[in-house]
Hints:
Layout: H1 2-16, H2 22-29, H3 33-42, H4 45-48, E1 54-59, H5 61-65, H6 69-77, H7 79-87, E2 90-92, E3 103-106, E4 112-116, E5 122-123, E6 126-135, E7 138-143
Parallel strand pairs: 1-7
Antiparallel strand pairs: 1-2, 3-4, 4-5, 5-6, 6-7
Helix pairs in contact: 3-7
Amino acid sequence: MKKFVIAAALAATAFAVQAKDIVDTAVAAGSFKTLATALQAAGLVETLKGKGPFTVFAPTDEAFAKIPKADLDALLKDKAKLTAVLTYHVVPGKVMAKDVKAGMVKTVQGGSLTIGTTGGVTVNNAKVVKTDIEASNGVIHVIDTVVMPK
């Protein structure tokens, strides 16, 4: 009987610790408040809570702070432009750091990002500062600059 109780407790614990999706993982990290606000404003929360898998190059709050306040406020009010900027940070599939190769990658937005691997990984003009934050529907790589589609 004792073994059964322990097994049941372990099973319940394993179920409770299931991985969170990309949005919940980013929110729980605490350094993506602006990104979370932007995802809500663009109506992309449900998309990034979807099946995926997605690879998200997630700008930190500090990355968003590099954008002049008036420009950021205007971006947050322009749903079409905001959607384009945010989906430019998302690549279909789950690409872990060990699998990153230099070159161009197609984004969900339709444009391409330039990935560099010399002296650390870069995405266009942004540096990847943390990699492989796994979520139930993909992976997050943290970047220090918001990248803008051309």
